[in-house]
Each structure stands twice: as structure tokens, then as C-alpha cells.
User: What shape does this take?
Amino acid sequence: MSPDPAFLEVSQLRKTFGSQIAINDISFSVRQGEILGYLGPNGAGKSTTLKILAGLLTPDSGNISIGGINLQQDPLKAKKRMGFVPETGALYEKLTPLEYLEMVGQLYRIQASEIRRKSHEFLEYFDLAEQRNTRMTSFSKGMKQKVVLSAALLHNPDLLLLDEPLNGLDANTVLMFKGVMRRLADLGKTIIYSSHILEVVERVCDRIAIIHQGQIVAEGSITQLREMTQSPSLELIFKELTKTGGVEDKIEAFAKAITNGREANAASSQTEEEHEL
Amino acid sequence: MNQPKSLINCAVLVARWAEVVSHHLAFALAVDIFQLRVLVKIAVRASFRGYEPDSSKSERSIRSGFRNMLVTYFITSMGLSAMSAVCGNLITYNTLIISYGMMMTAFAVLIEYNDLILNADDAEILFSKPITSQTIYWARLITLTIFVLLYSASLLLMPSMASFRFAKSKFYLMPFSFLIMMIGCLVSAFLVVHLYVQLLKRFDPNRLTGLLTYFQAGFSLVLFYGYYKLLLYKQAAGSVSIARAVENVQAAASSGSNPFNLILDQSVVFYFLPPSWFAGSIDLLLGDTTLRTLNLSMTALCVIVGVGLVMFKVAPASYLHHLVAHALDSQSLPGLRDAGEVTHSRTDDQQWRLRGILSRFKSALRSTVGSSFPPLTRAGYHLVSRYLKRDGRLRRGIYPFFGIILFYFLYGIENKNFLIDIFQAHSGTDVLGAHSVYVLLPLCVLIATNATKYCSDWRAAWIFYAAPVELRQFHLGYRLATLGRIYGPIWLLLLLLYFFKMSLGPLLLQMLALFLIILFLLSLSFLFDPHLALSQAPRLHAGFLKFTLILALLVAIAQGILILEYISSKHEISIGVFYLALMIVTALWSLFEFSQLKRLEPVIV
Assistant: This one.
């Protein structure tokens, strides 16, 4: 039996900013109903990849196919099938959540009655029903993120590109949204989930791709990555693959910088004394 | 019975025809009409909406935004209408008011450019949606058109009505003449957009934002000075220049006769001014079929067609996409630009060394002067200074007005009667007519105190509340920064200009009065909105009416103080009392201002 065909296929993707290479010949694919965790340190190229997949940035070279549609050749058709949650959580803050969702729904040409129904249901789900007519200028980061998530899901997309989607969300919503992601994948949605919260990635994602300095350095299920690196946890796998060494030294130096060296020195000499004892 | 029915049928047919044509046109331009309508509706709604979070007031707030804008410009336009009394013919009057309309439109578009045309949020919100860049482009262009039409309509309605004092019998043509004026404003707005977009394609957006503010200051100088200078360059004898007309205010007031009869169309340069082309079209509309009018009208028509073609042509598939992606690129790697700047500046060693010496001198001076102020005052000074230097919104709000100030300096140098020693003046009108700087300063004060409240990074204002900021110390830093960066240079330039025109004693006294008036007006205008600098979200059209009313009040107060100074200048004791009173009032009012800082409300972040 042949494996499921890939819903999203990315091949030889490359993007440069001036002389700096942001992503360098990245290739990967994601099957329908699969959640791909996209990990990497700050500045590794995660958001750039997602911006290219969402059609915000044009790649220098490479191909992107979404459900058999070439993003570069037929962007409108491809974009109809995707929902994007940007890292910045950008939205028009002068609008109310209902107005914003109405606008997004109309851009996707959803029926007015359906927009209304879904908007109310989504806002109810995210505990924003009472604020549905309040302008978002006064919203907290988490509240805005809930509206951004609602907008990305409004048109029932087949592909979800989530760049730090849990930013600012409260614990209950995080818990619920993790469940929603798993359920959506079970329903056949394809999800790329970029995050720094390794625990969530480890629990939710079927496969993980780790990007470092613009290149994918490892890709596979968590079991495969463990075998590959001989490391027991995703945290250690990440640390090894992205060469994040000397963390303890950095912690020590930072603490010294904060306390001007006094308290940190005192603490370290106390620890030394304890060790001696 | 049949006639109304056929009329209705006819109207329905025309509407259907228009719908079909617009759909075909939209298809040809790759524009989705439905999405276009949604975007325009949202943009207009957001543009005229204030920042009050109360939802029940949201529609009311949009309406009040519209109303405030219309009322404010309507008030300004009444003054503009009065110009019809000083003009000798229709074409001169129309040229002047269209010039004003076109200039104000161009400035408004530049100041609000990022919100009206190239909003960075658009990229992340809209480009992941199934929408063409042409749809976004045309939606932004239509929003701009609505904005410009509303703006120019409120600005030019009264003056266009007043223009029919020259052709009373043809008042029924007023809507058409008004339309031509508004087309002139639209042409000006579209040209500014086109020019700016072309520059954005070639230059780094951040660098361009910085350069644009200097361009605006230079542009306003060229505009004022160009009009003044070019119109003086006339061939026909007997015509009266604007400069002469302004100087004759005093003579008119004393003699009771009208000295103006301003006629500009005898100057050759007149025919090169774009507003005169539109004014010529209005003349043609009113029945002047001379060759000159026909030529001017044809030029106007060519300009309209040319600008129309440019707006269609510059909307290729990747038009806005390219621009916003460019903005995203520069956001993605902010370090690149700085690195480039350093490499570039190092190419010229001598220049680099000189810069090093200058910067060392500046930092030494800064640390010497700065050490006498508390750290929070220094922080406020540095923060506001840096934002005045780097924040595009702040710079666009403040810098264009420097051009007008510079114009007055140049004007003052060339016109001996411009500056009057207040101790030598013959009448109050003498003083008011000569010291235009006293009219301009309230404007600058109001712009500076208002503009510094809003900046692009207003969300960072939480730091004023999170950190143990002593508001008065921080505010003192802000005050020193505005004095040092905005009023200091103006004051010094004035001192330099007056130095060659007046004897030392009166000069020092007048400069002291000017300094105190600046301080007094700054305190006064701040009290109308007592929020810390850099702490508020930018607004588009909210608060226009309040702004104009405060400006009128400040102008009246500045002029009142000037007249008081003139009256008291007749006697040594009275002038002493005047200066003492002005110093005490300014000091008390400043103290009052600093005490009012307690009333600051937390900003919405």
C-alpha cells in the first residue's frame, strides 16, 4: 500500500535578504491529516518559511505545491485553501472582533449568514462573546490572538500555517487549542506548527522538522529524532542539533550582569561552600 | 404617465450598463469588485474612527469624525473665500485657491501615507488571503479618492461659491467649477502617491521616510517661495504681486481704499503653474473662449489623462505585493541597513574623522550639560529627541511647517517692512501686519505639542507606567527636547535675521518676549491634552475641530500679547511691568502645566 500523497510539498526553497541567506534550499512535505512541528532558534528562518508558504514573501527559487496547486502559478486558488496565523498577530485594531471576522469572511466569499454564525460560535468558544462589539485597541495580546486564530479558521482551510499560535493565550485556551489542532488533523487538515514551546510540539505533532541557520538539520517523528541523536527528550535533541552549548555559562554571566556580579558571586560561593561541606 | 416610466426604464438601463462596464473594467484590471467594496468600507470605517473602545459609540464616532473634518475645513475655507476681495480677476482667484487645495491635499496624503496607501499591517493580514494585489491597490486608491474628495470639498466649497462674485449670472455652473477644483486636488494627490511609490521602489523605505521629511520642508519652502518669487517675475507693468499686496495691508487699513486688485495672469510664469491650468478650465466653462483659456484647459485635460494613465499603468500584478514585501524584507533583517551605512561612511576617511571629532564634542557637551539634570529628565530629552529624528509619523507631522517658517525668513530678508521694531511702530496694525512669525508660532507650538503625543511606537508607552517614572522630570526632558530641537533653531534664525535689522536693546527685548510667548503657548496648548509625549495611538481624522479652535485661540493670545507689548512700549515703566507680568504669568502657567500631569490617564495598550 502506497503512503498518503503529500498535501503540501516544498522543494528547493531559497530566500535571501541582500547578501544574507535566510533559507537555503529547504525541502519537505506534509501529508493530509498530519501536523508538522517546525522548530528552530530565533532567526533560523522559521517565520520566513511560513511567510513564503502563506504568500507574503516571494522566494528566490523553489516550488510550493498546496493540494496539487502551485502557489506561485495560482496563488489565489492556493490561498483559498490555507489559513495563516502570523507571528505578529497583526489585525485591524480599530475594528471590533465581529467586524474583523466579517471582513475576513467576505474576502473568502463566505455567505453572510455563515460568517455571522461562525463568528458568534468562534468568539463564544474563545470566551470573547461579551467583547464581540468592542474595538480591539483595548484588547490584551491573548484576546487579539484569539481573534487572529478565529479569522484563520473561519473559511475551514485544508492547510493551517501556525506561527507561534499560542502566544499570549491563557492555560485553558492553550489546552483547548491543542485538542482542536489534534481533532482538525484527524479530520484531514494539514497543519504546520511553528513554536518555541517544545513540550506542546512534542505532544501534538506527528513529525518535527528542525531548522538551523536556514537549513533543515533534522526531520522525522520524535522517535526517529531520538534514535538519530541518542537524546531522550526533544529539549536535548533541539539543543544538540542547533548546537546550543554552554547554556549554564550563559545563565551565570547573565545573572552576573543583572546583579552587577555581587549577588551572583555570593550565590555561587555559597554553592561552592555547600559542595565543600 | 408613460414619460416617468420610460425615464425609470432609461435610468435602470444606464445603471445596468454602468454595472456591466465596471465589471468588465474590473475583470480587465484583475480586481474583485466584491472584495474591493469590503476593503474600502473597512478602510473608511477605520480611518474616521477614534480610539474609544466603547462599542455603542462606534458608529456615532465615525459620523463625528466626518463631521469634525468637514466643519474644521469649512471654517478654514471661510478665510480662503475672503481672498476673492483682494483678487482682480477670476483666474487669479481660482489659481490661488486651487493652489492652496492642491498643496494641502499633497501634504495630507504625505502625512497619512502609511495609513491610506501602504499600511504595513496589510501585508500580514491581506496577502495570505485570496485577493489580488490589484484589488488592494485599487481599494487603497479609492479610499484615498474618498478622503481627498471629502477633504477638498470641505476646503473648497465656500471659496468656489465666492468665486462667482466675478461671474454672478452663471452661478448655476458652480457645481461644475467646484468639480474642476476637486479634480485638481485629486491630480495632486495621485501624483504625490505615484512619486512616492516610485521612490519606494528604488530606495530603502526607512531611509526614504527620513529623507521625505526634509523633502516636505523643502517642498513647502519651494512652494511658498516659488509662488512669491516667480510671480514677481512678471513682464507686464502695473500688476500687483502677492508680496506687495501683503505689505499694503497697512496702507489699506489707514486709507480705507482697496489696494489689492491682485492680478497674476500677466506673468509668464503663471502659465507654468498647474493650478492655473485648472483655473483656465473654469474660465472656459464660464464662457471665456480665448486661445489662452483653451490652451490652459487643454493642458489641464492632458494632465488629467496623463495622471489617469499613470495610475493604471503602475498597477502591474506585483505592484503592491512588491512594495509590501519590500517593507517586510526590511523588517526581517533590520541589521543589514545599519551595516551598510557604516561601510559606506567609512569609505571617506576624512569625513569619518571629522564626524568623529564632532560626535566626541557633542557627547562631551551633552554629558556636561546633561549631568546638571536628573536622569529621568535626561531620559525624556534623549527619547523625544531620538523620536523627533527617527519617527516617520512625528517627522511628517512637524517638518512640513518648517518650510513655511523658512519662507518667512527669506521674505523678511527681502522686504524691509517685514520686521518692525516694536518701539518704533506707529500703530497696532503696523505691528500685527509685520510680525507674521507671531501667527505662525502658535501653529508650530500646537503641531509640536500634538504631534509628539503620537508616534509609531505608541504601544511602548506602557513603560511610563511600569517603570517608576516621575512624570514631571520626564516631562521636563520632553520640554527641553522640543525647545532644543524645534524652537531653538527657529529662535536663533530669527535672532540672526533681526540682528541686521534692529538695534541691540530692542532686539534683545523682543527676542525675550518671543521666548516667553513660546513657553507660554507650549504650556497652554499642552493643557488641552495633558498626556506624556510618545504615549498615544496615531489618529487620522479625529480631533480636527478641537485642533482648529485651539489654534484660533493661540493665535489670538499671541497677537494679543504682541499688541500689549506695543501699547506698553510707549513708556519705560509700562514696558518693565509688561515684561515682569509676562515672566510671572509664563512661570506660573508652566508650574500649573507640570502639576496637571498628575491627571494623566493610562493609555490603552
